[in-house]
Every structure is written in C-alpha cells, then in structure tokens.
Amino acid sequence: MGTLHYGAAATAVHIEDRALAHLKVVIISKLRRGESFSVSWSHAHGRSTLWVHPAIPLRFVFETEEAPALNRAWLEELAQSANALGGITLVKEQVEDDETE
Which of 5, 14, 39, 55 could form a disulfide with 10 if both were Cys (CB 3.0 to 4.6 A apart)? Predict the structure, then answer.
C-alpha cells in the first residue's frame, strides 16, 4: 500500500502501489504544466477529493521498491478524466490482454 502525502501537514492518503504509480504519472504531468485540479477516489467510508495545486507540497511513497509496468490504457483514462470538469477520478484498472508499457 502506497501513500500520497499532501499539504504542509502531510496528510496521508493510502492508495495501492500500482494505482498510485499510475496516478503519479498523471498528476506530475498536470503539475509540470502549472495546472491545478482535483483528484477523487472511493474508499470503504465513502469518497474523498483533494484539490491539487503546484504550490502545495506533494510526496509519493511506495511500499514496493520496483516500479510496476504501466498500463497505457489506464493512464489515458486517468489523463482524460484529469481534463474533465470533475478532475481526476481514480478508477479501477481495466485489464485487457497485456497492454503494459
């Protein structure tokens, strides 16, 4: 289980390593362009949303040492949601064939 540390108080958000690796790619891409956006996800107690801004500290911590192979289709799905009005919505990975990069 990975952790996304967000804000000056380093609020910890626990996300499975594979999902966090994909989310990291999309988030970093948006932040490099200086864009602010929201990230939403579901969890056992409902759902949560963070407002991500380039000036707010952000750190990704992974439980595993090895970075996973990335699923291009999942990255594209997350990136498309990043450009939508509601921001990035962390959805489950749809596995078809072996479309990994």
Answer: 5
**Structure-derived torsion over alpha carbons of residues 101, 65, 87, 37, reported in degrees to the nearest 10:** -120
Q: Which residues contact 50 (CB under 8 A, 6 or more apart)?
A: 6, 13, 38, 39, 40
pTM, two decimal places: 0.86
C-alpha count within 13 angstroms, C-beta hemisphere, residue 42: 2
Question: How do 11-15 and 88-89 pair as beta strands?
Answer: unpaired
- How far apart CA 17 and CA 80 sit, in angstroms, is 21
Give CA–CA dist 57/27, Å, rounded.
13
